[in-house]
TrEMBL record, chain A:
Cytoplasm is among the record's keywords: yes
GO molecular function terms attached to this record: deubiquitinase activity; metallopeptidase activity; translation initiation factor activity; translation initiation factor binding
Localization: Cytoplasm
Highest taxon above the source species: Eukaryota
Annotated protein name in UniProt: Eukaryotic translation initiation factor 3 subunit F
Sequence ranges of Low complexity compositional bias: 25-36
Function text: Deubiquitinates activated NOTCH1, promoting its nuclear import, thereby acting as a positive regulator of Notch signaling.
UniProt keyword Protein biosynthesis present: yes
All residue ranges annotated as the MPN domain in the record: 117-247
HAMAP family per record: eIF3f
TrEMBL record, chain B:
Cytoplasm found in the keyword field: yes
Organism per entry: Amphiprion ocellaris (Clown anemonefish)
Cited PANTHER family: EUKARYOTIC TRANSLATION INITIATION FACTOR 3 -RELATED (PTHR10410)
Described purpose of this protein according to its UniProt entry: Component of the eukaryotic translation initiation factor 3 (eIF-3) complex, which is required for several steps in the initiation of protein synthesis. The eIF-3 complex associates with the 40S ribosome and facilitates the recruitment of eIF-1, eIF-1A, eIF-2:GTP:methionyl-tRNAi and eIF-5 to form the 43S pre-initiation complex (43S PIC). The eIF-3 complex stimulates mRNA recruitment to the 43S PIC and scanning of the mRNA for AUG recognition. Component of the eukaryotic translation initiation factor 3 (eIF-3) complex, which is involved in protein synthesis of a specialized repertoire of mRNAs and, together with other initiation factors, stimulates binding of mRNA and methionyl-tRNAi to the 40S ribosome. The eIF-3 complex specifically targets and initiates translation of a subset of mRNAs involved in cell proliferation.
Protein known as: Eukaryotic translation initiation factor 3 subunit H
UniProt xrefs under SMART domains: JAB_MPN
Subunit (UniProt): Component of the eukaryotic translation initiation factor 3 (eIF-3) complex, which is composed of 13 subunits: EIF3A, EIF3B, EIF3C, EIF3D, EIF3E, EIF3F, EIF3G, EIF3H, EIF3I, EIF3J, EIF3K, EIF3L and EIF3M.
Domain MPN residue range list: 5-139
Lineage of the organism: Eukaryota, Metazoa, Chordata, Craniata, Vertebrata
Keywords, comma-separated and alphabetical: Cytoplasm, Initiation factor, Protein biosynthesis
Pfam families: eIF3h_C, JAB
GO molecular function: metallopeptidase activity; translation initiation factor activity
Amino acid sequence: MNMCRPVDVAKWWQQENPAAQRRAPSSSSPSSSSSSVRLMEAVRCVASEQRRMLSSAQPLSTLPRLRRSSFPQQRGRSRHFLITATSTSGLQVALYVFTEAGELSSFSKMSVFGPVVKIHPVVLASICDSYERRNEGASRVIGTLLGTIDKHSIEVTNCFSVPHNESEDEVAVDMEFAKNMYELHKRVSPTEVIIGWYATGFDITEHSVLIHEYYSREASNPIHLTVDSALQSGKMNIRAYVSAQMGVPGKTVGVMFTPLSVKYVYYDTERIGVDLLQRTRVTPSRTKGLTSDLSQVAGSAARVQDMLTTVLAYIEDVLSGKVTADNSVGRFLMDLVNKVPTISAEDFENMLNSNINDLLMVTYLSNLTQAQIALNEKLVLL
Amino acid sequence: MQPLYLTLRLSSIVIIKHYQEEGQGSEVVQGVLLGLVVDDRLEITNCFPFPQHTEDDADFDEVQYQMEMMRSLRHVNIDHLHVGWYQSTYYGSFVSRALLDSQFSYQHAIEESVVLIYDPIKTAQGSLSLKAYRLTPKLMEICKEKDFTPEGLKKANIGFEHMFEEVPIVIKNSHLISVLMWELEDKSTVADKHELLNLSSSNHLEKSLQLLMDRVDDMSQDIVKYNTYSRNLSKQQQQKHQYLQRRQQENAQRQSRGEPPLPEEDITKMFKPPQPPPRMDTLLIAGQINNYCQNVKEFTSQNLGKLFMAEALQGHN
């Protein structure tokens, strides 16, 4: 497919505004003027692309995706652009700039349409796990997302992978399997519904659109989640999209994937479980035993101590003038200090002692009970 | 036994989630653990939950559900070998007949199977509480023979401490999951949970102690039963003894008078020995009480630590 050549557009733009050319991107963070250059570039490119698509007679169902490699290399650092366009209110452009290091910074995101997608860590862990277990030769894995839909948000709580075959020009998804699995899952948690599907991999390909169509038969307005488990950009990008119709009604209609904002939510107990898992990433063998008893309290206390030292360091800096004082931080610190309740020493002693007495008594009783049943055991065996 | 490595990256999250969804009642949620055995380790790599039992669900449904689930998972290359099962518990009260039976049938079929006990209430207090148990070989023997009389237990020399053996758990993650962890740490805006440093203890203690008291009541009833049985037994022994003696005396008298001795009657038919009460329940109750006591002690030790910390904090004020 012929893409518009941004080189032509850039040349035209530079001719029109020679002043803008001088402000070349020399610093690491893009200045606003150069961003506007890119912005105009992008807008014109997509607009011309759309015009071309609308004028062509054949029905198109692929989305307007501009490959990274088709953009020219900028001088100095090489920057890559990926542009996705939303179609609802005019042409709003989300611009993502990737630097060489692979950092993602969306600095001129004008607006993101649609509800917020809340993801539980189960889902992501499942996806990574299925990616690791994929068949030989398969480059990506797809599966169904289950969850609940709210007015303002979509909560993804579970998922399962679906076997599929993908080749150059066709894609086959085992829908029977998907339906079966969904039935099984529904028996356990009847409140979950199919809300979309996921795929590993970085880009959205033409096949994705077809698969998306399969899923729109199962759920109304399915969402599509991509997880870059191959770490193509140096980071695991987790993005969610909703499909939207685009084009002139009656004539050629296309499909565009609009990004949604993604948040991570946890249940309380999930949070604690994930905390424990976080600690595995520090050890080189990636293992961790489960501790119990006082050592856990000690660990927790150590963490609080770390936080306190950080806060203290900050305060020292402010006092010695190295860092300017921030009022909101100061207010939080005030809250913190006031949280320790001021009780008269006597009252506190009493409370403490009574609590300690309770706990000691309970310990004594449980020891007694244990001794009792041990004795009973021995007597019976006599 | 050998240490048990649990690749817990998926399983723990799934278990936690399932409990949260299925309700906060005192129902137990159960499910199946899947994985494989590697050298001397048992690796658990996935799990799926069972639906709750409703009135019109037959057992057949469950087996079918399990089979279908495993078949489907095999299609996507997930380990489909059964290696155990898991159950949630309420304040640590899981030592029951049902658990014993299930675990026995599992362990009979698969040598290394374990039952994973997850305590959501303890986890909500700040520390993930997952324990893996297996039946000791001695207990397996006894269950096989179904010999629960006191003599049988005495032969095997089983106490309540030798019923279950705990297997240590290690969590192991793959590299990709580590990347995921870093990513989550980066992006997640949920605050850290400091539940572990919570000072309130009375609620939890009350409930634990209540359960403990109930169990001790059960235990005392059991003991009374056993005492009556042993008393009956000894009384019967005495009666038998007396009867035999009288018999002998009579026989001696008859012999002295020259009459034929009375036939020996079958003693056992006359004095039927009382039924010895099954000791399995006692063992279970004792085990359960032991468990409660352990939990309570752990809890109190943690709380004592926290109280002393609070004292130190107050002292500086």
